[in-house]
Amino acid sequence: MVRVMALLSLSKVSSKGQVVIPKKVREKMGIVEGDRVLVYATGNIVVLRRVKDNESVLSTVSSSIRRKVAEKAVRAEDIEEAIASVRKADAEGHS
Question: Which of the ends of the chain has fewer CB neighbours closer than 10 A, N or C?
Fold first, then answer.
C-alpha cells in the first residue's frame, strides 16, 4: 500500500477574494508565478488544479466528465433523452 502525505495549511481570503497558496504547496505542486490554475467547487470543497501550459481548460474539464460518464455507464441515448426533456419543459414553461 502506498501512503500519500497531504500538505495541510490554512489561508485567509482577502477583501478582494484572493487566497495565498502556501509556499510548501506551490513548491510541491510546481506552481510558479504566472501559472494558470483551474478553480472549481464540489460540495463544500474548493479545489485548485494546476493547468499545464499545453493543456486547455476545456480538455481538463471534459476528461473529468468523460471519466464520470464511463463510471456511471451513461449512454449517448440517455444524454439525448435528458436534453430533449429539458427542452420540452423549457418550451412548455415559456409558452
Answer: N
